[in-house]
Design a protein that fits this description.
Layout: H1 2-13, H2 16-47, H3 51-62, H4 68-75, H5 81-100, E1 128-129, E2 136-137
Helix pairs in contact: 2-3, 3-4
């Protein structure tokens, strides 16, 4: 019985079916290795513009089969070139946005702060001061938000500053 089992196993392992299975498995491993080398090359191209680095990464990914891509993952740059380009564009957009928030004198384009009444470079009048508290008033304000005094030169008949606090207490 044991002899027949071993003779059956011997017959299977020496048959054409077993040889076909072995060759198919070997072809699969070679194909898997080639695909992993191609992935390493494409990923290295996406992360570096230096051809020498791409070649070195491809060699590193190819030479120790199946362990090369794992080694490459340890040493590859953390960001792709597309990610770096996108980050640079976002940074520029933020800088442009922040640059547009900087106030400038309408006469000489000198940078001024929001609390300036006149331009320090050309002495152009930027804002009027409140006659009650002296704080700068924007040109479109009718009432000083700091002391509730009506802006100079305005007559607001029938309009009073209303108290929006509940029962005399300030709401938050």
């Amino acid at each position: 019985m044991i002899a027949s089992f071993f003779s059956g196993a011997h017959a299977f392992f020496s048959s054409a079916i077993w040889t076909t299975i072995q060759l198919s498995f070997l072809a699969f491993l070679v194909l898997l290795w080639l695909v992993s080398v191609r992935w390493v090359r494409r990923d290295a191209k996406a992360r570096s513009i230096d051809r020498g680095q791409v070649r070195l990464a491809t060699f590193l990914g190819a030479v120790p089969p199946f362990f090369g891509p794992l080694l490459y993952l340890l040493f590859r740059p953390p960001h792709t070139l597309a990610d770096l380009h996108e980050r640079e564009l976002e940074t520029r957009a933020i800088e442009v946005h922040l640059g547009s928030l900087v106030l400038s004198c309408p006469e000489c384009q000198t940078a001024v702060r929001a609390e300036f009444l006149v331009c320090p470079a050309c002495a152009a009048r930027l804002k009027d001061a409140c006659t009650g508290c002296g704080q700068p008033l924007d040109n479109n304000w009718n009432v000083c938000p700091f002391c509730a005094k009506v802006a100079p030169g305005l007559e607001l008949e029938g309009h009073e500053v209303t108290d929006t606090r509940a029962n005399g207490r300030e709401t938050r």
